[in-house]
Amino acid sequence: MPEPAAARAGIAGLRRRSHLQLSPLARTKNGLSLANKCICLIIVLSSVLAILETEPTFVRGWESGIYGLELAFTAIFVLEYAARVWTAVEDPAYRHPLWGRLRYVLTVPAIVDLLAILPVLLLAGASDAILLRLFRLFRILRLARLGRFSMACNHVLEAIRSRRHELLLSLLVAVIALVVSSTLLFLAEGAVQPATFGSIPRAMWWSIATLTTVGYGDVYPVTVLGKVLAAFTAVMGIGLIAMPTGILAAAMSDAFQRRQHRAIDQTDPAEQD
């Protein structure tokens, strides 16, 4: 039998290799590891299955097979979750064998992982009450985990942070436009259509649909003044939609350019020649 020290060293080596496979930030190479690629594929497949389960014609006659697949997916995610907790001590932020793992379990990514597993484990065999069906939709959170594995997600967050003041300003302008248009339509249409424009909160439904350029058509002004105000509101809505879109597009372009510049700076000068 191997010596205890040799066995501990072997376990530690296995844990380090597993950590490199499971943690994208621990890798020195670009791209995902083979393990994370497989996990991403399983996340997509399990999410597609959860979506298709809501269609009765798809489920009918395949209940046992679908349930078996869901259990298989859940078993894989349970093993993955346990492996991530086990290898968390390889991260310097969670170095302590007990408290480090506990800190990792309380992080947002670990909580999302757990929420993706719990619905099947806790609600197996439960009735099809609407509340339980809605709770089972937490399985869709598995798909949200894909963002952790993509560096593009970091660029999106960086772009939002760099333009947060401009985005907040555009949100403030949208709120002001919503309040002003709702108030004007209340004054112009409130006496004629009290059911839909009889108060500012009631008029806000029409303002939201118009400013977002959705235009359901279920509520609309009938007076001349109301129609004129509606025309100005509709035109203003185009600008309100374009404003944050342009801000985010410029921010994304800047973020990707900064990434390219950092990649060039980190490249060996001999390789550039």
Question: Which bin fits the share of residues in helices?
Answer: over 70%
Q: Write down the overall geometry.
A: elongated
| Average pLDDT number | 81
Instruction: Figure out the total of helices.
Output: 14
Report on the biggest sheet: none
Element pattern in H and E: HHHHHHHHHHHHHH
Helix-strand makeup class: mainly alpha
* Integer-rounded radius of gyration: 27 Å
Oligomeric composition of the shown chains: single chain
Instruction: Determine the strand fraction and express it as a percent band.
Output: under 5%
Low-confidence stretches: none
Distance between the termini: 55 Å
| Count of strand segments | 0
Describe the protein's architecture and organization:
The protein is mainly α. It is 74% helix and 0% strand. The chain is built from 14 helices and no strands. α4 packs antiparallel against α6, α10 (164-189) crosses α12 (200-211) and α10 (164-189) packs antiparallel against α13. The termini are far apart. The mean pLDDT is 81.
